[in-house]
Amino acid sequence: MALYARPVLPALRLLGPGGERAWARQPRITVGRRPISFSAGASGVFGSGGHSKKEKLFLQDVAELIRARACQRVVVMVGAGISTPSGIRDFRSPGSGLYSNLQQYNVPYPEAIFELGFFFHNPRPFFALAKELYPGNYRPNVIHYFLRLLHEKGLLLRLYTQNIDGLERASGIPASKLIEAHGSFASATCTVCRTPSPGEDFWADVLVDRVPRCPVCTGIVKPDIVFFGEPLPQRFLLHVVDFPMADLLLILGTSLEVEPFASLCEAVRSSVPRLLINRDLVGPLAWRPRSRDVVQLGDVVHGVERLVELLGWTEEMQDLIQQETGKLDGQDR
Ligand SMILES: [Zn+2]
Predict the structure, then answer these.
(1) What angle do CA 225, 229, 235 make, to 5 degrees?
(2) Active site: which residues (predicted)?
(3) Residue 121 contacts by C-beta under 8 Å, 6 or more apart in sequence?
């Protein structure tokens, strides 16, 4: 599997739903909140109890599998759709603060800010984006805290994110549980001598609109965000171990358009339920559905809240959010 970001740039998708791909124009199946399962006639085995008949799974069933701890190695894949409820919008959307910010830099097209060629020509638009995403500017939302709770309960095997906003970390999920597939602003590297730079150093420059320079060679210091054509982080290779081990796959708020990320959802065993909570039916779940797929279409926050309710975690979630919001308020003061 290629480990290089393909031309549909990841980082952009992260920031918001972009253009639709060919297969996304297939007739859209929207059934509100009612979970649906496809290919009910496909062969397969339900659980290990020797059921010969194919059974359709619903959101309720997934919740019960988690409650009964029949699923306790949950792998999660997330994308831009979990960041929009935090107020992070596609920076290409006219009217978003970021879009207006980019206008002043003569960026030929928005994707250019994640191209190395353009970056070396003019790094300022990229650092304007970095400044916008400075930790604390945006806060984790209920979806991030649901994932945190999944971790607290010892159920999270790994969280694969395409987002570069760092909100998964901000929600308190430890770095060891995270694969930030398109990189993060948590570290940076000199583009010339490759000297790593601790995050705190470059933020000081970014916050005063100065391009961060390497103390060793004065080369531009670039946060470790994956640009077009750059290799994905080494940690991404953990998918080789994680996906075959998973006993439940959750896919939240991603259009599954970017490879190699998108194909990962096919790497879980065929007996493993895949739950998609998303605005639309997307990617391999649309064109190569499995019998144990559960699809909860519509608003992602509502879908997650419904799952939390079915899990009986609503009160714990409220407590966690209250506690974490209190901490963040404290930091802001
Ligand atoms: Zn250097």
Answers:
(1) 50
(2) 182
(3) none
176-198: per-residue pLDDT in tens?
999 999 999 999 999 999 999 87
Identity at 55, one-letter amino acid code: E
Q: How far apart are CA 156 and CA 294, in angstroms?
A: 19
Residue 23: CB partners within 8 Å, gap ≥ 6?
286, 287
> pLDDT at residue 6 above 50?
no
E strand intervals along 84-173:
156-161
Token reading at 66: 């988690």
Q: Which of 51, 144, 151, 182 is catalytic?
A: 182
pLDDT digits (tens, 9 = 90+) for 27-37: 333 333 333 33
What whole-number distance in Å separates Cα of residue 25 and Cα of residue 23? 5
Gap between the Cα atoms of 185 and 261, Å rounded? 19
Q: Tell me whether residue 190 is annotated as binding.
A: yes
Residue 47: the pLDDT is 41
Span from the CA of 111 to the centroid of ligand 1 (angstroms): 26
**CA of residue 214 to ligand 1 center, whole Å:** 5
- The values of phi and psi at residue 191, to 5°, are -75, -10
Residue 193 annotated as binding site? yes
Q: How confident is residue 201, by pLDDT bands cut at 50, 70 and 90? A: confident
Identify any residues that bridge with 277 across adjacent strands, giving them in sequence order: 252, 296
In the residue annotation, 182 being an active-site residue is answered as yes
Say whether 214 counts as a known binding-site residue: yes
Distance from residue 229's CA to the centre of ligand 1 (Å): 21
pTM of the model: 0.83
Nearest residue to 30 (alpha-carbon basis) of 328, 303, 308: 303
- Asked if 9 and 228 touch (Cβ cutoff 8 Å), the reply is yes
